[in-house]
């Protein structure tokens, strides 16, 4: 079984991006800039944002974190986004989720100009992705896609099952696999027989949030299995896939931690660079 080492693949991607940033700097005499807006002091968000900043600096991006207390007014955030939309030195804007209850998440997402939407959450980017046009793609499914392609460069005709239909993971993952000519089944909490669906799959992507939902006898021999789940349990962090059981059948499997997680941040950097490149044309 191939253990898909997300840490290693993400490190390789960061190396490639670092080179690309230095080439862009030579060509345009400027580097892509990423601005992250962080509201409140929730520990996980603080850690994510710190890691994003560290990785951005590592590849040579200009990066900035703007912090607000969780009492900040929605209007202040929207005005700041407008200011960043109009700032030519900023290629990508990300507002770290979740937001305090009094701030309308959708309004925030839709205020970010689509060309700087490095999370790929703006309806324009969602629409472009589903129409098969160029767009920013949400970072986690993009990371999953790049890992799948490392194992199997030609996905045409493969049967893929995506477990979970969130806007963040399941839906964009489905679009990416469809674009690669997979036959995709998207499943969710009302799916009648999830085991039977999974048993058909050459590729399974599980993004649910239920510890070890996907069992060993749900997975066809030689399937590629990508585990997006991050679940805190008494036994530490576990994914949505029962790792020990599934590793006996699968051709390739991502571990948790050390699989999808590291790729998410690397893909944020990739999206920032791609936004910069599109803006130069
Ligand atoms: P979410 O928004 O809660 O969506 C979960 C999806 O799973 C929903 O579509 C839901 O179906 C479906 N589901 C729930 N119970 C199910 C069941 N028994 N069988 C089949 N499907 C079921 O979750 P998310 O934001 O996509 O996150 C999923 C997991 O990924 C979480 O553990 C999260 O922490 C993790 N995550 C990891 C990363 C990373 O970087 N590695 C990034 C983001 C998220 P319905 O639509 O019918 O309710």
What structural keywords apply?
281 residues; alpha/beta; Rossmann fold; 2 domains; three-stranded parallel β-sheet; 10 helices; globular; binds NADP nicotinamide-adenine-dinucleotide phosphate
Outline the structure in words:
The protein has 281 residues and is α/β, with parallel strands linked by helices. It has two domains: 86 residues, Rossmann fold (3-Layer(aba) Sandwich), CATH 3.40.50.10860; 123 residues, NAD(P)-binding Rossmann-like Domain (Rossmann fold, 3-Layer(aba) Sandwich), CATH 3.40.50.720. It contains ten helices and eleven strands. The model has no long low-confidence stretch (mean pLDDT 97). NADP nicotinamide-adenine-dinucleotide phosphate binds next to helix 10.
Summarize the model shown:
This protein has 281 residues and is of the alpha/beta class. It folds into 2 domains: 29-114, 3-Layer(aba) Sandwich (Rossmann fold); 139-261, NAD(P)-binding Rossmann-like Domain (Rossmann fold), CATH 3.40.50.
Unreliable spans: none
Along the chain, the helix and strand elements come as EHEHEHEHHHEHEHEEEEHEH
| Rg for CA atoms | 19 Å
- Placed side by side, the strands forming the largest sheet appear as 1-11-8-7-5-6
CATH topology of the largest domain: Rossmann fold
Bound ions, cofactors and other small molecules, one mention each: NADP nicotinamide-adenine-dinucleotide phosphate
Oligomer: single chain
Structural class: alpha/beta
The total of beta strands comes to: 11
